[in-house]
Amino acid sequence: MKHFFSDWRAQDLVVIGVFAAASKVATLLVALAGGGMNPVSLMGKNLIFTMLLVVMLFRVDRPGTLLLFTIINSIVSMLLLGASVTLLPPMLAAGLAGELAMLCGRGTKRVWNKVLGAAVFDIVSKGLSLGVTWLFTRENPAMLVMVVPFVGIGYLGSLGGLFTGVKAVRELRHAGIIRQ
Amino acid sequence: MQALSVSDKQAGVAAASAAARKNALDVRARMAVSVLASLVTIGIASPEGQLVLFAGSLAYALSARRGRAIALAYAVMALMAGLASLCTWAISLLSPAMPFQPRGLAVPFLRGAVMMNVVLPLALTCRIQEMLSALKNLKLPFCIYIPAAVMIRFIPTFMNDIRQVAETLKIRGYRLCFGEMLRHPLMLLRLMFTPLLFRSLRTSEELGMAAELKGLEAKSRFVPMCGRPWTRNDTLLVLGALAVALLAAYCHLKWGTLSARAMR
Fold first, then answer.
1. Is residue A13 part of a domain?
2. Burial of B189 (0-12, 13-18, 19+ CB in 10 A)
3. Which one in A39, A123, A143, B63 has a CA-CA gap of 20 to 30 Å to B171?
């Protein structure tokens, strides 16, 4: 654990922070521009988030990146943006599941390993977020039923983000911006 | 004479803002209230307890003295609540197993309102530098503090970048509106966010190099630029929040358990 906390290069940490900021701003702006709960903006914001996540995983190629990104996003959302503290455990669990998936898929081609990590993170975080939604709306189950299709539509956007992320990484590699 | 009166006015404004800053509450105290509220509001499932929390949090939000912003936030929230009620009513028509109960909707909406009330003062009154100092004072590990500080520092920068990209697109004849987003979503996303992706990569590279050249590493020591002491007002705020939480829990246990059971 001590090794995990102390063995990071400042450059990698800065990349994680910049991508966390970019994903937060981009998703917020898409949500605002699309007027909140419409399917296009829901898919768009999930697509952008996952695309940035995939690019970041390629940029910082070391174990623990996804988990640290999740911790930073959750802590800043909780302390400064008012996200509920109940979202922290599910997000941590999703980050850990993504890391484990990447660890298990080490033998596969590197591109698909990162995509697998992002995909597992997306599906676990969406599933567990529904659990948190149940905590908030447990007095009225119809509200949870209403939320499920929106989460499903958002997940379709995340799936699209995996493909656009891989495409973006290929182009960035071609341009020499990502060197791995 | 005119110049003298202007400088007097400026001096007055500066003195007033300095006094306001001196009386302002610490970011750590506001963060503590926000975390406490999010925990308590989940635990309390009755309208009685939630109403106590709502009253306390509303008083706290109004203490920020940003009436217009708070009114705007409430208007948006009322719109969202109206839409959610409409959808819930439609679901109850489709599925009789889930009847429409306005009383059952009250608690989730009150939860949302309580969270909004505690977040608004934090968002409306705290400066970025104060937030960074507060993060540093929380004594987080190096690998969490650096990305969190970078994230908070760069959120306004990226917003400005996106505004510039949008202006550039307008100059080139693209219409950036809701209808256009629905008609050409992929094209707009590509036009808006490809520059953001490149900007993120470039910024992270430059900032990372600067951090390494400055010798920033896990063992280096940081000194916050403007360390703000914890004052009596901060302690009073946290104690007040605890008192409201305890009162809400008492009301929930005394009168709320029956009504919560009735709602189910």
1. yes
2. buried
3. A39
